[in-house]
Amino acid sequence: AQKVTQAQTEISVVEKEDVTLDCVYETRDTTYYLFWYKQPPSGELVFLIRRNSFDEQNEISGRYSWNFQKSTSSFNFTITASQVVDSAVYFCALSEARTNAGKSTFGDGTTLTVKP
Amino acid sequence: GAGVSQSPSNKVTEKGKDVELRCDPISGHTALYWYRQSLGQGLEFLIYFQGNSAPDKSGLPSDRFSAERTGGSVSTLTIQRTQQEDSAVYLCASSPRTSGGRGGELFFGEGSRLTVL
Questions:
Q1: What percent of chain B has pLDDT over 70?
Q2: B98, A37: Cβ pair inside 8 Å?
Q3: What are the tens digits of pLDDT across the range B67-106?
Q4: In this complex, which of B40, B106, B109 lies closest to A102 when CB atoms are compared?
Q5: How far apart are CA A75 and CA A72, in angstroms?
Q6: Do A104 and B107 touch (CB under 8 A)?
């Protein structure tokens, strides 16, 4: 069975601080996808990134970066120089890649509050 | 439309009544999913449709839940004889591709918030 653990329920930072959201996963599949989604206060979940299990290269997109480490089954998400607009609930998710990549197991989410 | 559209956005019903929730996916997306988000929790997979294939119903919590997708586009999730534990936000998502080692990213609607009194 697949499992995603986001141990941090809530994080509060002050604007311009860097913050890392942790994600640890469990799966027996050898080929899988990892995802991060953002759910702002407005409620609509927004896709941020997809990572293939065979690609451990880290990725940077503007102030966002992701660190995928297969050895520790972790897929952590760092926001650099956080802004108030980053306040949201962030979900990490895992799916089996070969048959149904959209059938994801989600973590319980981390609520990030960025204070001005 | 540009995104996934869901209706109604809010639904309050009495215990024992039936409800129908509608989802209109992004045009051209072949895969459609229903997820449920209970208060303060993550998302729970309910059902998946892909083209003309038989749906994956493995996440439906009971036989009171059913869903259909007509013409490969619009989907309706039906909950019969609603119970208070059915109260949640029901999220629909579509995806352009879901197999063969590709895709899987989900594009979500705003959800239908169901409250069962």
A1: 92
A2: no
A3: 999 877 899 999 999 999 999 999 999 988 655 555 678 8
A4: B106
A5: 9
A6: no
